[in-house]
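Design review, sub-item: ligand-bound model
Attendees: FS, YL, KQ
YL presented the inputs for the magnesium ion complex:
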Amino acid sequence: MSTTVPPADSVLAGGEGIGEQAWIEVIQKMDEVYNDLLQYEVALEQKNAALEESHQFIESVLASMSDILIVCDRNGNIEEVNSSLCHFAGKEASALEHTPVFNLFADDIERAKAREVFARFGREGVHDCEFYLRGGDGSTVPVSMNCTPRVSQTGKLMGMVVTGRPVGELRRAYQALRQAHDDLKRTQGQLLHAEKMVSLGRLVAGVAHELNNPISFVLGNVLSLKRYAQRLETYLGAAQAIDDPALQALRGELRIDRVIADMPLLIDGMIEGAERTRDIVDALKRFSAVDKMTPEQVSLNEVVERSVRWVVQSASAKFAVEVDLVPDMVCSGSSGQLQQVVMNLVQNACDATLSQPEARLRVTGRIEDGTAVLRFADNGPGISEDYLSRLFEPFFTTKPVGQGTGLGLSISYGIVERHGGKLSAANLPAGGAEFTLALPVASH
Ligand SMILES: Nc1ncnc2c1ncn2[C@@H]1O[C@H](COP(=O)(O)OP(=O)(O)OP(=O)(O)O)[C@@H](O)[C@H]1O
Ligand SMILES: [Mg+2]
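KQ shared the predicted structure:
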């Protein structure tokens, strides 16, 4: 650096006493000060560059944060936001700054909730609290929010830092996952059920086949026995007229008169038992598709109306059935077998609603995607969860002995399967059971 030395006489008035040496020292000092100044400037520039760099770093971190970030003052006014929030709210940062943070919430209820939570827990911080915010497109979006207090070096509360993560997407994904899981579980349940019914069908077909012959000849023989018994009775009546004391004594000893009196009752009992067994075997055969059918066009409207009429005729007066079917519901199959299915469903509803003050059954019929869907909804007690999976098993009944064989639904299940349809049971949300009978519509 070059310095100009002023002439000694122009620096101080009356500059005598200050020699040239003094001037040189002054100049040297000035040089040192100038050098120091230069170094300070360089250091300052370096610090400035470092500051600028760290500022850019923070800016880039904030800009690439996917979570929203809001810095508020003590009164809840926004001081700074990151680009995620601008994007979320559909506004520029300048339009958001200095506005109340509570304006971001979806409605007055959410605002009141947020005010309360922030006021109560603001000092300790709020963690993962869910609020609804208003998105830029006007939609309300659930956001999981965290809030931490911002304090000065002296410990004074300066405001708060709020971060949040929109959870709508996450929740939708979770719901989709849950739905897929439920569907999978239901399908697995249906598969298991179908498998169980197939093996039951095979087992029952085997039992029915094995019982069919013995019961036929028991019934045939017992009917012959009844005819023989009548002949024997006539013969013994005639033998009584023979005046032979030994024969009379033997007759008394063997209590032949009592045997003759009991025999018709015993034989009738045997016939009744054998007939009941034959009916059960027939029912088992129907469940397991041993009997074959020749398909015909069946009007489901007629089947339902006939079944309802027959059951209602023999039911108590308070059983009210409402039928609401679209016209011309036609499917292909056996009208007798389908009638048996519908009658059992109506009869079951009648039995289930027996203790209701107003027993009601509503039968609706609609065509849905080429399928005739009949729904039987009653106002009975519904079906307990434990029983829902067992309803279609042969001999499953909750009715007292002698009042139900537990074959109704299992036979119906078999019949409906053979018609290419589906029979299912569920409980109604408002109470009562609903059976759904779905059959493919006949192509004309
Ligand atoms: N609408 C219904 N509400 C409540 N439970 C029902 C209903 N329908 C059927 N159930 C239950 O399902 C069981 C089985 O019915 P299913 O028709 O197979 O046999 P059942 O009616 O007991 O006897 P069956 O029909 O042979 O006379 C019934 O005992 C009952 O517990
Ligand atoms: Mg029944």
